[in-house]
Amino acid sequence: MFHASHHLTPVKATNTEFEAEVVVVNDVAQSLCPLQIVLDRVILTSTGVLLGCWQVHTISL
Length: 61
What we know:
Elements: H1 15-31, E1 35-44, E2 50-58
């Protein structure tokens, strides 16, 4: 998922954009092996970029 915005001039995603992202993520998730995803840390850079850093592990069945 990707949505460009900045803390000084926020750009909100529309409901249509949000729902389209959810559909795409669900479609991809159905075709991948099971994953365990954990938010590891959130970083705010000096330029205002907010990063979510995730740990992703495959789950053996």
